[in-house]
Write a structure and sequence with these properties.
The protein has helices at 2-15, 18-36, 39-73, 82-88, 95-140, 142-149, 159-166; strands at residues 171-176, 181-191, 197-206, 209-215. By secondary structure, the protein is α+β, with helices and mostly antiparallel strands. The protein has three domains: 2-80, no CATH class; 91-140; 152-215, 2-Layer Sandwich (Beta-lactamase Inhibitory Protein, Chain:B, domain 1). It has a four-stranded antiparallel sheet with strand order 1-2-3-4, covered by helices on one side. Helix 2 (18-36) runs antiparallel to helix 3 (39-73) and helix 6 (142-149) runs parallel beside helix 7 (159-166). It is elongated, with a radius of gyration of 36 Å.
């Protein structure tokens, strides 16, 4: 029981204005105690008033914090929710409520404009990708391009399509002779127990054409 009382007092202290709550609670408890001539009931009512006081101060704290958050959001591009307005206990007739209304209208308009811009950019990107795809088909043929976009690696695949299929390599080794340039692209890196980097997959190209590929154990 004492632990409960101690925790209650601790909560009241941290809530702020604790001395006022204690004085009022003790005063009201004393009045009730003398009125009914029962110290035990007086103590009980003192604790009840302390608890109610704590709840009240906690509610005020929530309101204050919510109000500060509202004022902070007024300087941002974020919507102020109805829940936050309710916690702040802002009256609909107040000038602050009107500010919030105007702010939310501006934010919605801003978000609408952003969405429109994103859609325009996405459409540009889609057309650009479509143009590239059609250009590759003209250059290499539909079958090769489709296989590459499906992330397939195959013999006689041009380097340009290999990169579409696998992405840029993690590492490249190159050797040059009189009539050919030989490259090995390495993919899927991992660390060995000696802290060196090895790769799980390699593709060999000669003069920018795939001539071999393998899983590396």
């Amino acid at each position: 029981m004492m632990d409960f009382f101690q925790n209650l007092i601790k909560k009241i202290v941290t809530a702020g204005k604790w001395y006022l709550i204690l004085c009022i609670s003790a005063g009201l408890g004393g009045i009730i105690s003398r009125t009914i001539n029962s110290p035990e009931i007086g103590i009980l009512f003192t604790l009840i008033f302390m608890y109610l006081g704590y709840r009240y101060m906690k509610k005020i704290k929530v309101k204050k914090n919510s109000l500060n958050e509202v004022k902070s959001l007024l300087n941002s591009n974020s919507l102020i929710s109805d829940e936050l307005i309710s916690k702040s206990q802002i009256k609909k007739s107040s000038s602050l409520f009107n500010q919030i209304k105007i702010h939310n209208e501006k934010v919605l308009e801003y978000q609408k404009e952003l969405k429109k811009q994103r859609e325009i950019e996405e459409e540009k990107e889609r057309k650009k990708e479509e143009k590239k795809y059609n250009s590759l088909i003209k250059k290499y043929g539909e079958e090769m391009v489709k296989k590459s976009y499906n992330e397939e690696v195959f013999l006689n695949q041009p380097e340009e399509l290999l990169i579409i299929a696998m992405g840029e390599p993690e590492d490249v080794k190159e050797s040059v002779t009189k009539d050919k340039v030989r490259k090995t692209f390495f993919y899927i890196p991992y660390q060995t127990h000696l802290k060196t980097t090895n790769y799980r997959y390699s593709v060999t190209l000669e003069n920018k054409i795939v001539v071999g590929y393998k899983d590396i154990n």
